[in-house]
Amino acid sequence: MFRTALIAAALIVSSFLVAEAQPAANRVKVNGMQIYYEVSGDGDPLVVLHGAYMNIPSMGSIIPKLAKTHKVYALELQGHGRTTDIDRPITYPSLADDVAAFMDAVGLKKADIFGYSMGAAVGLQVAIRHPEKVNKLIAASVAYDAEGWQPQFRAFIPQMTVEMFVGMPFAEDYRKLAANPDGFPALVKKLIALEHQPMAWEADVKALKTPVLIITGDADVATLEHSVAMFRLLGGGTMGDMGKPLPASRLAVMPATSHTAVINQPELLHAFIEPFLKGETPKGMFD
């Protein structure tokens, strides 16, 4: 009898802990959309922004890892996942303004931001357009200028068609989550148009005061030279061990990593992100 009671109590506690671990799902009206977002964890606020054609689940286990030490606000951008679409092109500035308005709507005065791919460019635009809202920015697989994309990708952009994308696996994911399951072709059309939009933010990046962690794969969609150039714009690339503090921004290169493989390495991502957010640096011989 006593053993049965202990087992029952353990099951109740276990169920409670599992329930506690589940992210809280919410919706909030922002700029005419119903933005879907999930909140998990506890600590300093961290906004997570997914890539194009993606959603919160497709960001994988990096979100629960970050939620161990941060209060994570993962949101789905215009027309993605469970967030509704509106009659408006998708642009990096407009998505950045959506994120800023989202933060206002949920009472976030300031937060760290982690973005991947399209989400990284959106995060960069949030830091440019709304610097008062960003503590630190983690930008994985990002470019600040269209000339920074790999030549193969730049050559591929003019060949993009809606038909290329409608049979891909993320098209099925879209239909499972979207408020309008038939809206995927319209989303693809907007995202193809996004690739054709001008992108030349060098002066804006150079003027940033926000510390940025740039994460790139060594076979990413942006060239390594472009990532290094961005790091230098942010004050990086100097020699340490000379009695001066290291720059506030950082650069991390993931080996043997293509663009789509970046987000599939949560342990390595977390090992880069957490020390950056904490302001920790490796100790040298002269420290």
Automatic annotation (TrEMBL):
Name the domain of life this protein comes from: Bacteria
Q: What is this protein called?
A: Pimeloyl-ACP methyl ester carboxylesterase
Signal peptide residues are: 1-21
Pfam families to which the protein is assigned, alphabetical: Abhydrolase_1
- Give the UniProt keywords, A-Z: Signal
Q: Which SUPFAM superfamilies match?
A: alpha/beta-Hydrolases
Q: Which residues form the AB hydrolase-1 domain?
A: 45-155
Against InterPro entries, the record matches this protein to: AB_hydrolase, AB_hydrolase_1, AB_hydrolase_fold
Q: Which organism is it from?
A: Rhizobium azibense
